[in-house]
Amino acid sequence: DTGVSQNPRHKITKRGQNVTFRCDPISEHNRLYWYRQTLGQGPEFLTYFQNEAQLEKSRLLSDRFSAERPKGSFSTLEIQRTEQGDSAMYLCASSSSDGLSSEQYFGPGTRLTVT
Amino acid sequence: GESVGLHLPTLSVQEGDNSIINCAYSNSASDYFIWYKQESGKGPQFIIDIRSNMDKRQGQRVTVLLNKTVKHLSLQIAATQPGDSAVYFCAENSGGSNYKLTFGKGTLLTVNP
Predict the structure, then answer these.
(1) How many CB atoms are closer than 10 A to CB A83?
(2) Per-residue pLDDT of chain B in tens (113 residues, 90 and over written 9)
(3) Is A96 exposed, middle or buried (0-12, 13-18, 19+ CB in 10 A)?
(4) Torsion over CA: B66, B9, B44, B62 (sign)
(5) Contacts of residue A42 in chain B, CB cutoff 8 Å?
(6) Phi then psi for B82, rounded to 5 degrees?
(7) CA-to-CA distance for B98 and B101, rounded, in angstroms?
(8) A103 to chain B: which residues are within 8 Å by CB?
(9) What phi and psi, each to the nearest 5 degrees, are found at residue A49?
């Protein structure tokens, strides 16, 4: 499978714990995005990387959230001191900046449940 | 603030009929729009996109129409099949940068056999 992959697919954690999610983009894509999706809503943009540089962060991304893409390939999203309101599906997407094609391809998501 | 929204939250059609899903956007500066399909438990799947210098684009069984005058986007699915049952989202780029997407709320399409 050469699509975007995310791990784990599901995570259940207790309030106050830290969690980390991983995203592996399509190999030739230099852009990587994180979104959050709650039930019945469309995905909401969180942050964006071009290669290893984090170029934009949404105001939705509080200080408890941090994302990295150290080698410009895979990315991690960490949530510290989780809260029940963090329960959501966390989606990763990637795209290429070459040419006019800029569609974002999404992974299957990591569903986080904070109890 | 700027937003992308859908006129109908649910749409039920008979197998073989054509489906039309509508979307209104409010950011007149947006120049790139995408339709995604999302099945239960899966990430959004790219269907078709269109840039603001076009008013129509066709794919396999799908057509996207863009009306910039009234800021309206639609997705037409021909000969709808049960496998088309899913939530459909329209999305627009924000800030003309072609990277950050703003999604609408979604329309649930149900295809009855």
Answers:
(1) 12
(2) 344 554 448 999 999 999 999 999 878 888 889 999 999 889 999 999 999 899 999 999 999 999 999 999 999 999 999 999 999 999 998 655 557 889 988 999 999 98
(3) middle
(4) negative
(5) 4, 89, 91, 103-106
(6) -55, -35
(7) 8
(8) 34, 46, 49
(9) -120, 140
